[in-house]
Amino acid sequence: MKRRIFSAVFILIGLLVLALIIHIKSSDNINTIELPEEIIVLKFEFTNVFLVPINDGYVLIDNAYEKEYNLFLNYLKNKNISIKDIKYILLTHHHDDHVGFLNKIVAENESVRIVLAKETAELLRKGKNNMENGGGIVNPTIYTLFRIKQMLTPSWNLTFPPYIICESDIIIVEDYFDLTSILGINLVAIHTLGHSSDSTTFIYNEKIAFCGDLASNFLNWAGANYSTLFNEDINIVYESWKKLIDIKIDTIATAHGKSFHIKNLENSIFKNSQSNIVKLF
After folding, report:
1. What is the reported pLDDT for 2?
2. What pTM did the predictor assign?
3. Looking at the domain covering 33-279, what would its CATH class be?
């Protein structure tokens, strides 16, 4: 009798675990989209980095943690791409998982030009994620997971090697900046604030939004609802989402998780509340 009860409990636990795994997997795979073949997606520990071809090389959108530079070089080698083939680096914002090995690329490719918002340029000088505007984690569940991650990786301190802009770098000062004539591809930059005070989205061919951390496809099962885990102000994030919805973007190419259809943002807007944010800074 005891053995039967034990077996039943064991099976029940197994089914619950299986159901949880299926839920986690499915929650981040709704309306996902494969990017066009010409766009190369480089997947790092937590960050997606994108290579978009131009006439004489590539545009690199963001980079990852400093420690992942060798992995980046291996990716390039496997794709038969030289570091010198990267002509421009577009930065969506200044955080450590997006600018970590920026200086290393510039050291090996002095002709590369950085494209970034004026606010990003100012924050890169400081060498750490901005904490002056406050902000926090989207809900208590994800806050707990965030703290566990911090405990498991004590070296993760939200810092990065400072970067000082050069004369050749391209500074975005307008809310809408057309880069088409500079890059030779259809690409515009728009300010999309909320995650950070310097967040920029790059729109390719009027359809694909490389949004950095404006939105994500990660931990939706824990209540992320397509927002990035940290935000300075979730209400401003939603205002930025509406910008993308109003200009009829088709695809969200996020730095965290698989690319997905814009309808996921339409269905998730306002699902999180600033009152549920767990203050971090």
Report:
1. 53
2. 0.91
3. alpha beta
